[in-house]
Write a structure and sequence with these properties.
This protein is of the alpha+beta class. Helices cover 27% and strands 31% of the residues. The protein has one domain: 2-Layer Sandwich (Antithrombin, Chain I, domain 2), CATH 3.30.497.10. Strand 6 and strand 7 form a beta hairpin. The termini are far apart.
Length: 424
């Protein structure tokens, strides 16, 4: 059994996030159980979302060399979950499998999302947690009303038909994003391709105060060591003589830090020296995560010292999602016929996620926006449906036999204008 952490080991615990005491603050009622039991389908969707999220994070972190990676598995799952309602056949199976939903039916998946949205957003009155969903459809493109109805019922998603070539549409989308993230994220797309047929967007906003807040007077400037052994000065927040859930593994130490009534918390994992945090994340699958959280137990700590920080992250998730089995949805041959009568001509063009997180003595503010852009399948044909030039040539000699301009293939030549000759 591991011994209690020493003062020196905790001083070194420069976890990239903030902390608090495990004790419930004055006037805050501790939440010890959900207001209702989860349905079997809801349990399956939560388990699937965790598997999906950890796999997605591992793949993104392994491929992205930037020092910080911040993802919202729930936001990605919901945006793609909305899109799933338009998929059929092998495309539906591939998306459902990559999202981890196994053999759950569309009805079971939708009912579970609906129930979880209601449950999570109302769970702790001391934590502000909001989920919003919206769809923008390019006007002039036909869609099935049943698709919009299903997504509205399951995800409370609004829908609008707009001209994607109109700059006002881009402004409206980004205004929606800014409004539903309390200004933490102000754009999800910098430009809107008029060839795009639909944009499905999820936004998540979280604002939670630590159950016991740090004292700003205890914050000190200290050194933080990067992966490459270089150092940077950061503002470190500290607690002394505190009890909170702590766990240990062969390659890490972990601590759980609650917000509000303790329904929501942040789990921080510090790999041991010699173990890369990026490599640790790459091996953190659902089984390892369950073992880690199951091993958390209250323990007295002499000192906890961790940095304040504000991070933003912006990534396209196409490569990771395709590698996870969703490839058919991104390629010609995708089947989105439950979305549109021309669904056999559509595929996912991009999945983009932006995140924001701010951690300080009071608590944590975080936001995420995931956008799924659906476009028409790339077309490599040649359609002469506007004026064109033509020539007939003899290829071997290069002799041009005819050359012309076709401005109206149906027009009949009226003949030349009457000629007035200067000769006679």
């Amino acid at each position: 059994m591991p011994t209690r952490p020493t003062r020196s080991s905790l001083l070194a615990a420069a976890l990239v996030v903030a902390a608090c005491s495990d004790a419930v603050g004055p006037g805050v009622e501790q939440i010890t159980e959900l207001p209702r039991a989860l349905t079997t389908s809801e349990q399956a969707v939560i388990a699937a979302s965790n598997v999906f999220g950890l796999d997605l994070a591992a793949r993104v972190a392994a491929a992205d060399t930037r020092p910080n990676v911040v993802l919202s598995p729930l936001s990605a799952s919901m945006a793609l979950g909305m899109t799933l309602n338009g998929a059929d056949g092998a495309t539906f199976d591939a998306m459902r499998g990559a999202l981890g939903f196994g053999s759950l039916t569309q009805a079971e998946i939708n009912a579970s999302y609906r129930g979880l949205i209601d449950l999570l957003t109302d769970l702790d009155p001391n934590v502000r947690f909001e989920i919003a969903n919206a769809i923008w459809a390019n006007e002039g493109v036909p869609f099935h009303q049943a698709f919009f109805d299903a997504v509205a019922a399951a995800f409370d998603a609004s829908s609008e038909s707009r001209d994607f070539a109109d700059p006002a549409t881009l402004a409206a989308i980004n205004a929606w994003v800014e409004g539903h993230t309390d200004g933490l994220i102000d754009t999800i797309v910098e430009q809107l391709d008029p060839a795009l047929v639909m944009l499905l967007v999820n936004a998540i906003y979280f604002d939670g105060a630590w159950t016991t807040q740090f004292d700003p007077q205890d914050t000190r400037t200290q050194s933080f060591t990067r992966e490459n052994a270089s150092t940077v000065n950061v503002d470190m927040m500290s607690f002394t003589d505190v009890e909170m859930p702590v766990g240990f593994g062969a390659t890490y130490a972990a601590v759980e830090l609650p917000y509000g009534g303790q329904a929501f918390s942040m789990v921080l994992v510090l790999p041991h020296p010699g173990t890369s945090a990026r490599d640790f994340l790459a091996t953190l699958d659902a089984g390892a995560w369950d073992a880690l959280t199951a091993g958390l137990a209250p323990r007295d700590l002499d000192l906890l010292s961790i940095p304040k920080f504000t991070l933003t992250y912006d990534a396209f998730l196409n490569d990771a999602l395709q590698a996870m089995g969703m490839d058919p949805a991104f390629k010609p041959g995708a089947d989105f016929t439950r979305m549109s009568p021309i669904g056999d001509q559509l595929c996912i063009d991009f999945v983009r996620q932006k995140t924001f997180i701010e951690v300080d003595e009071r608590g944590t503010r975080a936001a995420a926006v995931t956008a799924v852009g659906v476009g028409r399948v790339s077309f490599n044909g040649f359609v002469a449906d506007r004026p064109f030039v033509f020539a007939i040539r003899e290829r071997l000699s290069g002799t041009i036999l005819f050359v012309g301009l076709v401005g109206d293939p149906t027009a009949q030549d009226p003949g030349p204008d009457a000629l007035t000759s200067d000769c006679s």
